[in-house]
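WARN no homologs supplied; continuing
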Amino acid sequence: MSRIYNFSAGPAMLPEAVLRQAAEEMLDWQGSGMSVMEMSHRGKEFVSIAAEAEQTLRDLMGVPDNYKVLFLQGGASGQFSAIPMNLLRGRKRADYINTGSWSKKAIKEAGKYCDVNVAAASPEGVLTIPTRAEWQLSDDAAYMHYTPNETISGVEFHWVPEVDAPLVADMSSTILSRPVDVSKFGLIYAGAQKNIGPAGITLVIVRDDLIGETLPGTPAIWDYQAQADADSMSNTPPTYAWYIAGLVFKWIRDQGGLQAMAELNQRKAGKLYDAIDGSDFYSNPVDPDCRSWMNVPFVLADEALNDTFLAEAKKVGLTTLKGHRSVGGMRASIYNAMPEAGVDRLVEFMREFERRHG
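OK structure emitted
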């Protein structure tokens, strides 16, 4: 059976080389006589897997020594609560930028713990990012949170905000897709199921001075200091997802690192946007200055053809192209593991579909 091109927003494609290595090691990891899934998380075998994964990630991203790297559970959505629990540190207010669905979810959850100042918001129904001059930041914010890439709508920051408060970023759909200066952030977090690995593990990179002063009643499992002290093993972690993440980190390193990923991802996105912009049959609703490299939504001129487009695409191995229910249309998610050949095949199909139905 040949593998399909899976354009899902998450869980998303994994590199084939990673899947093959995992398959080879499924029953016997490096002569241990057991699968990684069977290992004690405190045994020397898994401890070595975890340590190597963290070090490879630190090397890839250039994570400074004064940052903790945590491998946690609960998804990025769990961090919507954990962040105010850990980062308020006696303050009552946090600034948030609202650019779409995931920003809104983060804002709603943070509102349970603090006074949320929505410093800027994209106009309803307009897929863009408010200019920096429009932001109304607080003088006393404990941190400033934003979502660099809105997976659902395909709105992406192509710049890092400069603010006085510690900068917090939900990088679930952009992490490892390009170089990033970690030192500009107080905290970076990301769900794994897009560019890191399978669903089940969540990455948090947090500056040392921001942890150790949680809200009263914070569960130990959400206490960054407690997790850092326990090497992210306050309880049994999702060991297999951690192992796969480590393989993905090494795969990215072997492809040439984050600069190589950036060049590939920019090229893939460029091909797809060029195909959309060069057609009267397809269109992209996002402000061109804010178009995502990772998630490319597009609509057909005739919505009645949506189901036909999806069915015909599936027949040629192009799957999970249906847009999110809140947006409609189509969406192609083209994370690191999506090969350029997959984008080429999609563009070819789109042109052929337009020729027959346009």
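The CA atoms of residues 47 and 325 lie 41 Å apart.
OK
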